[in-house]
Design brief:
Elements (H helix, E strand, L loop, with lengths): L5 H9 L12 H12 L3 E6 L6 E7 L7 E6 L18 E3 L2 E3 L3 H18 L8 E6 L7 H6 L3 H4 L5 E4 L6 E6 L1 E10 L3 E2 L9 H22 L12 E9 L5 E2 L2 E10 L5 H19 L7 E10 L2 E2 L5 H9 L2 E6 L6 H8 L3 E3 L14 E3 H19 L1
Parallel strand pairs: 3-6, 3-7, 7-17, 8-16
Antiparallel strand pairs: 1-2, 2-6, 4-5, 5-18, 8-15, 9-13, 9-14, 10-12, 11-13
Helix pairs in contact: 1-3, 3-10, 6-7
Length: 386
């Protein structure tokens, strides 16, 4: 049976403009499903809560639990507004590099998954090869958060999981988790000439920013540390702040968004409880001016972190198959934590390319990186066929 190479599959995948902000990009998932179905894979297509999204779980070999799961997301960030010198949705091959949106993050690994899946169809497997292709990872791992509960009811929980985000084929055993929140503030409107008589929602929000900055300073100075990360402590970051309609009107509404990127050992419930208590104290003080003053926190997104041991069986397996040593931890989030948190699956992150290229104009992956990934997955195929 003739199959496409990883580079040929990457060319096909880049051609799908699967930007996570698009209204509908499920066609890329359907393309992958059609390929896998032709090779005899058991396919489970999962539609997203938001229209126009679809992911899949697939398996080849003995049914049920066990085997190894390879995981990738098919969505990419927008290319609009970036200074590309090539068409971002047409793969360009030049001087050993493959250019195009998603070549590094992370259609390179998805292409390698499809390529090895085709090779797997030509031989009997003693243990199953399992695949996960998700959507809306770039929106905060939304797709996998919706898919993960169906894993055991579809293809069965695997023994191990490799998530192929770009690590230059180095085995990554950890990354921080992230929880994000929105805070809505309520004040009292009025003319700015009488500003001190009113509750300025933006002032309340600004004091909240200051409170969050104080918490961040404490975490940096005295919090838990893991020097494997570039920023070795839990971080609290305010990303947006909005409110007000005119300079001479006291704003009665404001909104901010903040996130906590936390180390695996961090007690995030304790941090959030502190934030709630201090915010309540701010509101109580402002209610002396206006009883309607308020601030309400809501959770907007969450994905778990990852923490595997350097000598864990999954770590040693990935290195034995071709993942580079020494182990590392990555600063960006991945879907890996879902597999471990929901199903206790030993999971690592290892894939072709360098995230320094991700989300940039003229994103590229080195052909040598894809070759190293192919070699690793071929070794995995040999293992599953024994």
């Amino acid at each position: 049976m003739t199959h496409l190479s990883t580079i040929e599959f990457l060319d096909r995948l880049v051609g799908f403009p699967s930007v996570f902000t698009a209204a509908d990009y499920a066609s890329i998932t359907d393309f992958a499903a059609s390929q896998l179905k032709a090779w005899g894979f058991e396919i489970h297509r999962l539609t997203g809560a938001m229209p126009g999204r679809a992911g899949l779980f697939a398996s080849l070999g003995p049914a049920g639990r066990g085997g190894v799961l390879l995981s990738a997301h098919l969505d990419v960030v927008p290319a609009e507004g970036q200074a590309w010198t090539v068409d971002p949705f047409k793969m360009t091959r030049r001087d050993g590099r493959l250019y195009g949106r998603g070549t590094t993050d992370m259609k390179g690994f998805a292409a390698a998954m499809l390529s090895v899946a085709g090779r797997a169809a030509d031989r009997p497997l003693k243990a199953p090869l399992k695949l996960a292709l998700s959507y809306d990872e770039e929106a905060g791992c939304v797709g996998m958060s919706e898919m993960i509960g169906s894993l055991d009811d579809t293809i069965g929980v695997p023994d191990f999981c490799f998530v192929g985000e770009p690590t230059s084929m180095q085995v990554a055993i950890g990354h921080k988790g992230k929880s994000s929140y929105r805070v809505r503030f309520r004040g009292t409107p009025g003319h700015s000439a009488s500003a001190p008589l009113h509750v300025n929602a933006l002032h309340l929000a600004s004091e909240t920013v200051g409170m969050l900055r104080e918490l961040q300073d404490e975490l940096a100075a005295n919090g838990l540390r893991d020097d494997a990360y570039d920023v070795p402590y839990t971080t609290v970051h305010v990303g947006t702040l909005s409110g007000g309609t005119a300079l001479n009107v006291v704003p009665d509404q404001a909104e901010l968004e903040f996130e906590i990127r936390y180390l695996a050992a961090e007690d995030t419930d304790r941090l959030l409880d502190r934030i709630r208590r201090e915010l309540a104290a701010l509101v109580t003080r402002w209610r002396q001016i206006g009883s309607v003053a308020d601030a309400v926190i809501e959770s907007t997104n969450h994905y778990p972190g990852l923490e595997a041991a350097p000598d864990a069986e999954v770590t040693r397996l990935a290195q034995r198959l071709g993942g580079r040593a020494p182990v590392t931890k990555v600063s960006y989030g991945t879907e890996a934590g879902f597999f471990h948190e929901r199903w206790s699956i030993p999971t690592i992150v290892c894939g072709p390319g360098d995230m320094i290229q991700g989300h940039k104009p003229d994103e590229f992956v080195e052909e040598t990186q894809l070759a190293a990934c192919d070699a690793m997955l071929d070794s995995l195929l040999e293992l599953l066929a024994r």
